[in-house]
Amino acid sequence: MLGITKTAPMPHPHASIPIDMILFRLKRVTDNPIRNVILATILFGVDTLINRKYKTSLFEGREIIDFVCRRGVHREPGKREGRIRGMNIDLNGIVVVTGNYGSGKTEVSVNLALERRAKGIDVRLADLDLVNPYFRTREARHQLRRHGIEVILPREQYMAADLPILVREVAGALREQSGLVILDAGGDDAGATVLASLADRLRDLPVNMLQVVNPFRPFTESIAGCIAIKKQIEAASKMKMTGVVGNANLIDETLPEHIYDGYEFAAAFACECHLKLEFITAPDSLAAEVETGRMACPVLNIKRQLVPPWKAAAALT
């Protein structure tokens, strides 16, 4: 399977796209290998001719990824798609954020809530993390509430308990069909078990269940590892993934190259599993350096809120 060390680098804008990359992306569009080979050959030939004559490329790597992984699999019949410009995260209703332990899913949940609230959307964030006693949504509850986000937590006397306490407010939030409800589940299959108790309530509701992946963490440094985590979480939660979030980072050591490599990895994983790549993340400190135009999906800037006691959380405006 494709691992992070094998991910092809983003091609130069004036270089023709290798046919094997086109084939890799196209193989998930249909189950017809002959059609894919013919289409890939045509695309490669046209791109090569244009590149030789005009020293430019008809297709950039991000457009191939967009056509296949984001649009090709999920495109509505009869609907033409244009080039992506100014992409925004488009999530409403119920969003379940899952991932392996240490993937950064809680930081993603908190920052997603802040981003959606800044766009004027009513947001409620439920802390269902029973695995990690340190970096949980409840640790950022004061910041979230100051920004108008409703944080659903156990009662004060149970705040520090690692027990499957499901407050009635969670069930109430699920019944409402307005705004955005984010469920921050615990890591791995153990943390996702609590979702099984909500399976009946969620069964007939429109739910986005997202898997956060960081290829620089143990067990998810390969596509095979991510798929194994996906299957474990789905089995424990009795729910199915609908999308992927790329959260490639090395905390304070993160560089733009890590973001680009992580994007390629997340796109390949989403493509392999026929899932939508909803968005990727990038540290807010790199906002001026990361070229978002290289990605065929939205980018969520992360302002770290869940930090060790000796560090200060990023300031929120």
Instruction: Give the CA-CA distance, first to last residue.
Output: 42 Å
Second rung of CATH, namely the architecture of the largest domain: 3-Layer(aba) Sandwich
**The first-level CATH class name of the largest domain:** Alpha Beta
Q: Which term fits the overall shape?
A: globular
Number of strands: 8
Order of helices and strands: HHHEHEHEHEHHEHEHEE
Radius of gyration: 20 Å
* DSSP summary: helix tally: 10
**Which range does the strand content fall in?**
5-15%
Low-confidence stretches: 1-18, 60-86, 132-136, 157-164
What share of the residues lie within helices?
Answer: 25-40%
Please state the structural category: alpha/beta
Question: Might you state the CATH topology name of the largest domain?
Answer: Rossmann fold
Largest sheet: 8 strands, parallel
Q: If you average the pLDDT, what whole number results?
A: 75
Keywords:
alpha/beta; Rossmann fold; eight-stranded parallel beta sheet; disordered N terminus; single chain
Structure write-up:
By secondary structure, the protein is α/β, with parallel strands linked by helices. It folds into two domains: 4-72, no CATH class; 93-302, P-loop containing nucleotide triphosphate hydrolases (Rossmann fold, 3-Layer(aba) Sandwich). It is built from ten helices and eight strands. It has helices at 19-26, 33-54, 61-72, 105-118, 141-146, 168-175, 188-196, 199-202, 223-237, 256-272; strands spanning 93-99, 123-128, 150-152, 180-185, 207-213, 243-246, 276-283, 299-302. An eight-stranded parallel β-sheet has the order 3-2-4-1-5-6-7-8, sandwiched between helices. Helix 1 (19-26) runs antiparallel to helix 2 (33-54), helix 3 packs parallel to helix 10 (256-272) and helix 7 packs parallel to helix 9 (223-237). Mean pLDDT is 75; it is low at 1-18, 60-86, 132-136 and 157-164.
